[in-house]
Amino acid sequence: MVSLQLDGRTVVVTGAGQGQGAAEARFLVEAGARVIATDLAADVPAGLTALPSASVSAGAGLVYRQLDVTDASGWSRLAGWIKAQGWAVDGLVNNAGITQRSRLLDASVADLQRVYEVNVAGSLLGIQALAPLMGGGSSIVNVGSVAGVTAHYPVAYTASKWALRGLSQVAAMELGPRGIRVNTVHPGFIDTPMTAGARPEFRVATLAETPLGRTGSVEEVAGVVLFLLSPLSSFVTGAEIPVDGGQAGHGGAMSVSDAMR
Fold it and tell me: Quick check: is 4 in a domain?
């Protein structure tokens, strides 16, 4: 059996309290990594409590740290704490994200700024804080969205995910000479707490535009993230991988938008 070769590697996952982030943290621990899981809550979120705790001596396990990804000082404290433990950072998953569903003519600049601060600036701050702790062979995975490759109707969310694509490509170019890879995954309609609040019309229209005809699971996204974090993808950087059941391959944004009017 081929190993993901993640034993003993230290990976930071943002937005790890639930949904995709929790699944990524769980898969990484099961693959032998030390996972520094972060989220807004002060205490370990319920979705992570069953995972074994990591220690300085033990390789695999979970450490939870509270973090607001929009707070530069919080990132600095996290980086300082990791360095104080004597750990390098082998991987970063910029998973934290929020949505805002206002349409073009209703959205405010404040809507755009609020989503941008988490989805784009939060990822930039994470890269800036942790890249100095990374060596050759490290990997950064930014979690985009099918919205970032289509004209999806929630303009603030879509604009943020398009911007994240640009950030990822620049990071791949600038960090490549240091042996640090940067890639992006673009989930489609995945069953998560974020999508649970979507209107029924949205679900019906989106499934009609998904060739596989179903929603995806958080585990299906996590599997691709693990591949990109592992040495099995050692010559992959600047890549954008849809995990969307084929939705982005043919577009379909207009029919989803029309269904929501």
Answer: no
The CATH number linked to 220 is 3.40.50.720
pTM (predicted TM-score): 0.94
Sheet holding 10-13, edge to edge: 61-66, 34-39, 10-13, 91-94, 139-143, 181-187, 240-243
Structural domain that includes position 103: 10-259
Longest dimension (CA), the chain: 56
The DSSP code for 199 is: -
Residues 6+ apart with CB under 8 A from 179: 135, 136, 137, 138
Active site residues: 157
The conformation of residue 2, written as its DSSP 8-state character, comes to -
* DSSP β-bridge partners for residue 94: 142
**Pairwise CA distance, residues 242 & 40, whole Å:** 27
Query: Model confidence at 49, in pLDDT bands (50, 70, 90)?
Result: very high
Q: Model confidence over 148-171: pLDDT tens digits?
A: 999 999 999 999 999 999 999 999
73-105 pLDDT per residue, tens: 999 999 999 999 999 999 999 999 999 999 999
